[in-house]
């Protein structure tokens, strides 16, 4: 399955582009995140905390917020937003 994935923040540095085409077997949002990390290993520390997807990672499917267990439809577009570290607040 081919899925367009738009990434933000430090994950963009791992992929080299804002939007990439992900070749994967299909499945859930969690499976898609795992496929992103498999394809772009430098994205792992931004998306995973140990074995689990970071709770701060936000994913949308075709512009709608999605849960990790949601299935990704054929030809869907994903957006992956990792946690953004804030500044000093000044």
From TrEMBL:
Pfam families the record matches: ThiS
Protein name: MoaD/ThiS family protein
Organism: Natrinema salsiterrestre
